[in-house]
Amino acid sequence: MKVNEALAPAKVNLTLHVTGRRDDGYHLLDSLVVFADLGDHLRAGPADDLTLEVTGPMAAGVSAGPDNLVLRAARHLHPSRGARLTLDKHLPAAAGIGGGSSDAAAALRVLSRLWDLPLPGDCVVLGADVPVCLDPVAQRLSGIGERHIPAPGLPPLPAVLVNPGIAASTPAVFAALENRTNSPMPSKLPRLDTPREVASWLATQRNDLTAPARTVAPVIERCLSALHNARLARMSGSGATCFGLYDTRSDAEAAAKAIAQAEPDWWVREVTLNPPPSSSR
Ligand SMILES: C[C@](O)(CO)[C@H](O)COP(=O)(O)OP(=O)(O)OC[C@H]1O[C@@H](n2ccc(N)nc2=O)[C@H](O)[C@@H]1O
Ligand SMILES: Nc1ncnc2c1ncn2[C@@H]1O[C@H](COP(=O)(O)OP(=O)(O)OP(=O)(O)O)[C@@H](O)[C@H]1O
């Protein structure tokens, strides 16, 4: 990618343990986060005014107005400087894969280079997922999202992402959560060398938002069933996107093809999670 371009990769919560709730209503999380080799594309050119154009296959319904997280991130970085921004949307919005947060983080990265400014330290105010998206590699996220440390060794993971085209509102899903104090992941995460080992270990962990998300969007059950031949099938974030993990890319490709045929209205993509550096599409 050129210096004024950035990939805003899909974020996937391999685990999402809700461990408590702060007085301000935000929830404490313990989550193993990885990124895909697929995402939105952001370009920035020099300009006097700040403008945004939203293009691409998933642009429908995404505002290009000041509420777009790309423009909010730009104004967070500098209140008045200009740039001509183009956001090519490939990820569904409000889908649990951090589309908006990853776009905001990409905007901070690109504009900090264009405007020669340091990255801000307080970007959690843009969204709980923005800090982890600033450095899109495998990480363990905690606090409400403001804390993250590199995750121990994980291999690249052949996977399929499935979204049924229903937006799951993150506040609505948190509001439907019954038990807000659940156990965290083990304090030391194991080193996992193969997709199979990852799937076996993840099966002992959870996404605590799955049950409330199913009440908000019952179609999530069908997404998980569609991934029945995966080593592990789970929801990401607050849904509705679910992911399946496979042993090989060809297994994932075959599964994606079959699901897309059975559910032509769904968004179905074969991806690699935690890809080797510089292999993004
Ligand atoms: C669920 C996750 O996807 C896990 O990675 C993220 O924590 C959500 O991150 P996000 O979409 O950037 O969330 P924000 O835009 O900051 O928050 C949306 C809403 O989700 C709820 N929220 C979010 C994050 C958090 N740690 N606790 C919460 O309770 C709050 O109701 C908040 O008003
Ligand atoms: N650039 C953007 N792309 C997508 N949605 C955006 C963007 N900017 C603002 N939004 C708004 O943000 C809301 C949440 O979108 P986003 O894609 O970040 O949700 P999400 O995938 O559920 O996030 P998370 O996984 O962090 O919970 C959308 O409903 C949309 O109105």
Automatic annotation (TrEMBL):
<dbReference type="GO" id="GO:0016114">
    <property type="term" value="P:terpenoid biosynthetic process"/>
</dbReference>
<protein>
    <recommendedName>
        <fullName>4-diphosphocytidyl-2-C-methyl-D-erythritol kinase</fullName>
        <ecNumber>2.7.1.148</ecNumber>
    </recommendedName>
</protein>
<comment type="function">
    <text>Catalyzes the phosphorylation of the position 2 hydroxy group of 4-diphosphocytidyl-2C-methyl-D-erythritol.</text>
</comment>
<keyword id="KW-0547">Nucleotide-binding</keyword>
<feature type="domain" description="GHMP kinase C-terminal">
    <location>
        <begin position="205"/>
        <end position="261"/>
    </location>
</feature>
<keyword id="KW-0418">Kinase</keyword>
<feature type="active site">
    <location>
        <position position="11"/>
    </location>
</feature>
<dbReference type="InterPro" id="IPR014721">
    <property type="entry name" value="Ribsml_uS5_D2-typ_fold_subgr"/>
</dbReference>
<dbReference type="InterPro" id="IPR013750">
    <property type="entry name" value="GHMP_kinase_C_dom"/>
</dbReference>
<dbReference type="GO" id="GO:0005524">
    <property type="term" value="F:ATP binding"/>
</dbReference>
<dbReference type="InterPro" id="IPR006204">
    <property type="entry name" value="GHMP_kinase_N_dom"/>
</dbReference>
<dbReference type="InterPro" id="IPR036554">
    <property type="entry name" value="GHMP_kinase_C_sf"/>
</dbReference>
<dbReference type="GO" id="GO:0019288">
    <property type="term" value="P:isopentenyl diphosphate biosynthetic process, methylerythritol 4-phosphate pathway"/>
</dbReference>
<dbReference type="Pfam" id="PF08544">
    <property type="entry name" value="GHMP_kinases_C"/>
</dbReference>
<feature type="active site">
    <location>
        <position position="129"/>
    </location>
</feature>
<feature type="binding site">
    <location>
        <begin position="92"/>
        <end position="102"/>
    </location>
    <ligand>
        <name>ATP</name>
    </ligand>
</feature>
<dbReference type="InterPro" id="IPR004424">
    <property type="entry name" value="IspE"/>
</dbReference>
<dbReference type="Pfam" id="PF00288">
    <property type="entry name" value="GHMP_kinases_N"/>
</dbReference>
<dbReference type="InterPro" id="IPR020568">
    <property type="entry name" value="Ribosomal_Su5_D2-typ_SF"/>
</dbReference>
<dbReference type="GO" id="GO:0050515">
    <property type="term" value="F:4-(cytidine 5'-diphospho)-2-C-methyl-D-erythritol kinase activity"/>
</dbReference>
<feature type="domain" description="GHMP kinase N-terminal">
    <location>
        <begin position="68"/>
        <end position="121"/>
    </location>
</feature>
<keyword id="KW-0067">ATP-binding</keyword>
<keyword id="KW-0414">Isoprene biosynthesis</keyword>
<comment type="pathway">
    <text>Isoprenoid biosynthesis; isopentenyl diphosphate biosynthesis via DXP pathway; isopentenyl diphosphate from 1-deoxy-D-xylulose 5-phosphate: step 3/6.</text>
</comment>
<keyword id="KW-0808">Transferase</keyword>
<comment type="similarity">
    <text>Belongs to the GHMP kinase family. IspE subfamily.</text>
</comment>
